[in-house]
Amino acid sequence: MNYRIVLRTLGILLLCEAAAMLPSLVTAIYYRGNDIGAFAVTILLLLLFGVSMVKVKPKVKEIYARDGFAIVGIGWILISVFGAMPFYFSGAIPTVIDSFFESVSGFTTTGATILKQVEDLPRGILFWRSFTHWIGGMGVLVLTLAILPSVGARTLHIMKAESPGPAPGKLVPRVGQTAKILYAIYSLLTIVLVILLLLAGMPLYDALIHAFGTAGTGGFSSRNTSIGAYNNVYIDVIITIFMMIFGVNFSVYYFIFKGSLKAALKNGELLLYLGIAAVSTVFIAINIHGSMFDSVGQSLRHAAFQVSSILTTTGYSTTDFNQWPELSKMILLVLMFIGGCAGSTAGGIKNIRLLILGKTIKREMVRIVHPKAVYTIKVDGKVVDEETVSGVMTFYFAFMAIFTVSLILVSIDGKDMVTTISSVATCIGNVGPGLGMVGPLGSFADYSVFSKIVLSFCMIVGRLEIFPVLLLLMPHFWKKVSI
Amino acid sequence: MKILIIGDGKVGYSLAENLSKEDNDVTIIDKNAEALKKAEENLDVMCIKGNGISVNTLLEAGVDDTDLLIAVTASDELNMVCCLTGKKLGAARTIARIRDHEYASELALLKERIGLDMVINPEQAAADEIARIFRYPSAISVDSFSRRKVDMVEVKITSDTPAVGLKLKDLPSKVAGSILICAVVRNDEVFIPNGDFRIENDDILCIIGKPSNVYGFYKYLGKCTQKIKNVMMVGGGRIAYYLANLLKEMDIRVKVIESDRERCEELSELLPDTLIIHGDGTEEDLLKSENIGEMGGFIAITGRDEDNLMSSLLAKQYGVQTVVTKITRMNYSSILKTLHLDNIVSPKHITADIILRYVRSLKNARGSKIESLHRIINGQAEIVEFIANDSTSYLNIPLKDIKFARDTLIAVIVRKNEIIIPHGNDVIKKDDRVIIVTKNKAVLDLNQLASTGGLQNELQNSLKNIGHTPVV
């Protein structure tokens, strides 16, 4: 491993985090909160570490796949640690591990919280909590790629390790340009969302907080009862639609922008994603109609919001779905695993993988009937190469394996089954709220320190799609010369 | 610039590598996923798997707003069709690699009908390069301008040359009168010299002029003590065919050793004046019996790098003056340095270089008036060829009355077949080809040569430069 280039890139990352903390500092100063000092100290620390790490001069400037994975894996842990400092220093969250959990939950756009009361926290802290969603959603390192003027040829490894999906690609020939386009689309959509929320009657501060949460598909709110606190149909509808929008592969928007709307809409993954959302909404609406809500409109509104929120792994809520019938809760639990599309800000297994897995099952069946059949798996008329197919299967297995192991580790705490299963599922899928004690009105505060560490690990594993984090645990990976 | 490369072979890869480093947006199309993977992982380019002829693939790659399409697949026909389709779909310019010499004679027609902007034949280019080595055996680099009417040679001065210590204006006018020393490299820095410039040991001179005059000056420098009369070639491929013809024009007798019987017969038909020998070129006995020791030059151009290396080493051992070795893969580059082989030729690199140069000149020339471009020491100075047209603001004005920009020199004016080393009273006329030397990289147009600002001293310097060639 080329430690020098890894250190240097991590240094740049820390400097970017320092810059990303500035808006929160400004907010804190604007509201004259007692959190100004906490931000100032954290920014100074980031600058100190960042500058000294950037001064490392690498002998070899190429970033190979191994270095790229190391940068992403270590980088995410590092920014989470520094991101937790304002929570701890300001006293908003009293313990170190809780601050770390909250920070990881923010950057991985999970939105799981250990806070029971958020409304009395300082405004700057709440802003930072949600802003971590926004930068974590598209990727912190992708942000550095977009900002840095000279991005070398091999930085694609970094982007590949951070971007979700089985085979992340480029939109345009240059990595730096691709990162810029992604962030441009992301920022534009966020601004549109802020304006719409303002028009719907949300105050500017709340609109920003919820726009960050929606754009990053995170789910932190500045209100205890999340979106339900506003009880406003327009806000519900706007956020439902925008959560769905941010769960779509961003390249679709690029192609729409380039004028090929038809090609974009023929995207198999997009259709599957919309189909799952529609079917789930209908089932839940029928299920909760009558028992929970009296009017068809109300049932559809809440069903659609909750499906959109869980499927895109955002985690906002308009109502306490913990009270819903079992069928609805089970559908939501399944949606936690599915997640959004590749190349979006959403978490989960991703629809494209389900699509490929489904087609693999079909191929196995065709092979049983015609043992000599040659059958290639195609998505959108293009052949998916065998490497990607086996990658998807390995990913699925690894995802489930980590889910199972974490489940056993978390169950040491002795919580009930629904709580345990849903809290691991919600963390590894980057959703946020679960069912039972960790439902939309509950929190993760009651878990033990050990469980919180396991769940934090699950969140990073889920966000980085497993391998960048697992590699860090392999001793082989750290050796200078690996044979 | 947006560049589309079809074919991710060695040339395609090397082109993509260099072009993407120079800030172009490069997209590669190839059918081979394995080759693309290498490019995708190591280069900042976009890779698309597919057939380069397919309209869909080309459109997916954005051919409609591509500035340049380069087709370098293994097949000539494929390349031509790719360019034809690409042009119809809106690519601004196209380059095709066409290596079959049967097409070579029809190039003009092909260029016009298919709308090719440039055709590149790697074997022909390699043969040209090798022939130049034989024309100027110890030159560092040789380049041609104005369709080979003007040669530019970079040559290193050693202590045994008579020119050491002389000022440029003191050089004997008989040999120096009709050439121009347009740039001097000293300690890795480029100077554009005037008449008072003193030549020193280890200087690299860039000499420009009519090929025969440059050759004359070259002889004066003592750089070609004896003209090579006999050359032995090992390997009878396409390069051998082109090269044998070129060397014949230079009155050099050629002996070709080729191991394939059928190819030998073919060659003896194609090259009636050349001696073709059937045998293994790495066999010492055969080389000895064919008097390798008496040869002035030895050229190893078989298809196998290892054979070329071994037979070149043999030739060096027998004291051949000029040995040229063709190396296709650069796997041995670190060993090559220790072997002291002076002339290594790599057709793929030459091809890539030529295309690169074309791209650079395209980028420079907004109005596409740049004809060719040569760089000295990593581009510290450039030698650029323009064609003067109506838009040139100082036609028919004596050069001494024009104020020129700093560090810029008009080296040669080519008017039809006449080659003029300009003095203060010469003028630029319409349709002249003007070759300039400049340290100003921003020269994109002839009009930019005329300085707009004051800076009297520098102007006078440039004027002095213009008239610097020793007065007869």
TrEMBL record, chain B:
Origin: domain of life: Bacteria
Domain RCK C-terminal, first and last residues per copy: 140-223, 371-452
GO molecular function: potassium ion transmembrane transporter activity
GO cellular component: plasma membrane
Gene3D superfamilies referenced in this protein's UniProt entry, alphabetically: NAD(P)-binding Rossmann-like Domain, Regulator of K+ conductance, C-terminal domain
Keyword line: Ion transport, NAD, Potassium, Potassium transport, Transport
Pfam families: TrkA_C, TrkA_N
Family matches, as PROSITE patterns: RCK_C, RCK_N
Domain RCK N-terminal, first and last residues per copy: 1-120, 228-356
Protein name: Trk system potassium uptake protein TrkA
Organism per entry: Clostridium thermosuccinogenes
